[in-house]
UniProtKB/TrEMBL annotation:
One of its GO terms (biological process) is gibberellin biosynthetic process. PROSITE patterns: FE2OG_OXY (PS51471). One of its GO terms (molecular function) is metal ion binding. Pathway: Hormone biosynthesis; Plant hormone biosynthesis; gibberellin biosynthesis. Belongs to the iron/ascorbate-dependent oxidoreductase family. GA3OX subfamily. This is gibberellin 3beta-dioxygenase. Its EC number is 1.14.11.15. It comes from Prunus persica. Its cofactor is L-ascorbate. InterPro entries: DIOX_N, IPNS-like_FE2OG_OXY, IPNS-like_sf, Iron_ascorbate_oxido_reductase, Oxoglu/Fe-dep_dioxygenase_dom.
């Protein structure tokens, strides 16, 4: 039996003995939340140089050129937004209000659904908090498998309504994620025969996923706070819905942060570390962070999509040749999450087999140079 996603942190417990704050009661930024340059190794604010033409690609999924555009966005940005994706706007409204309802519960109520130190699901600080001296101005709720037990604790009367929303959202996201996988892989010349674990219908039936609800309350001193520190996602791809408040930034060319503006009805797609491995580095995973805001509460919902539990991800053989050796060793999603829990932003380099042949490749590979 392969280890299940829900067991990913059994051997990497997170023992954060931290008090969960009531953000709305804080009129000033406590020192434990005040970040300085030294707490984070990346550039501090969005750069304006070249900003006019430098915006994250937006791809209309009904465009006949969607395949080519997706490939280009994955090679050059590692992130893009999609429109005409087929997710009903009512469902996006429903998931947003479910998130709002969850995070506006009293702290004591939310703590009834706290994530256990070695667990994956539940309420708590971002897992990556343990790598930083300072706390992040955010709270999160992770769902892997059924949220029923936790939701019963949170909403003893209404849990069914919220479970149904999550179930519907996950069903629709799974379909969209499968479509996006074929756009990404198709533009590399990969077809259904090349990816056996996509299943007999090529619909990635056995894929695993986690749903992460993120809340970033309005912050009294946003310039010194950090919503979610810079990281890459340990996924194949992530589909992110953000409410109408900006905050997501991606690192561009290793030098400056570019904001991903919320576009009504659009969804953000991030290239994750496992597509980075699968594509043998052709599609680099994108380093991103979330900043906070003085007056507005920001919410985001991330659908973190990965392979079936038993599948070892390794560079696709069609992309390899005498001058393209495999750059990463095979690894399951579960194992990779364990590696991330240990090495954080050096996880990708820790599964790397050999240094790139061409030094120029190295320069653009942020995970081996800037991060790892
Ligand atoms: C499957 C997962 C990826 C994730 C850790 C998790 O177990 C569920 C939450 C995910 C998340 C969301 C916020 C940022 C992040 C780095 C974190 O701390 O938890 C990601 C993790 C990841 O992609 O590595
Ligand atoms: O809130 C955001 O915009 C980013 C969230 C994120 O990066 C994540 O959940 O992995
Ligand atoms: Fe992320």
């Amino acid at each position: 039996m392969p280890a299940r996603l829900s067991d990913a942190f059994k051997s990497h417990p997170l023992n954060l003995q931290l008090k969960h704050p009531d953000f709305s009661s804080l009129q000033e930024l406590p020192d434990s939340y005040a970040w300085s340059q030294n707490d984070d190794q990346y550039p501090s604010s969005p750069g304006s140089f070249g900003a006019e033409q430098d915006s994250v690609p937006v791809i209309d999924l009904s465009d006949p050129n969607a395949l080519k555009l997706t490939g280009h966005a994955c090679r050059t940005w590692g992130v893009f937004q999609v429109t005409n994706h087929g997710i009903p706007s009512k469902l996006l409204d429903d998931i947003e209000s479910a998130g709002r309802s969850l995070f506006s519960l009293p702290v004591q109520q939310k703590l009834k659904a706290a994530r256990s130190p070695d667990g994956i699901s539940g309420y708590g600080f971002a897992r990556i908090s343990s790598f930083f001296q300072k706390l992040m101005w955010s709270e999160g709720f992770t769902i892997v498998g059924s949220p029923l037990d936790h939701f019963r604790q949170l909403w003893p009367q209404d849990y069914n309504k919220f479970c149904n929303i999550i179930e519907e959202y996950e069903k629709e996201m799974k379909k969209l994620a499968g479509r996006l996988m074929w756009l990404m892989l198709g533009s590399l010349g990969i077809s259904k025969e090349d990816v056996k674990w996509a299943g007999p219908k090529g619909d990635f039936r056995d894929a695993s996923a986690a749903l992460q609800l993120n809340s970033y309350p309005a912050c009294p001193d946003p310039d010194r706070a950090m919503g979610l520190a810079a990281h890459t996602d340990s996924t194949l791809l992530t589909i992110l819905y953000q409410n109408n408040t900006s905050g997501l930034q991606v690192l561009r060319e290793g030098t400056r942060w570019v904001t991903v503006p919320p576009l009504p009805g659009a969804l953000v797609v991030n290239v994750g570390d496992l597509i980075h491995i699968l594509s043998n580095g052709l599609y680099p995973s994108v380093l991103h962070q979330a900043v906070v805001n003085r007056s507005r509460h920001r919410l985001s919902i991330a659908y973190l999509y990965g392979p079936p539990d038993s599948v070892q991800i390794s560079p696709l053989s069609k992309l390899l040749g005498p001058s393209q050796p495999p750059l990463y060793r095979p690894i399951t999603w579960n194992e990779y999450l364990g590696t991330k829990a240990k090495h954080f932003n050096k996880a990708l380099s820790s599964v790397r087999l050999c240094a790139p042949l061409n030094a120029l490749v190295d320069v653009s590979d942020h995970n081996s140079v800037k991060v790892g």
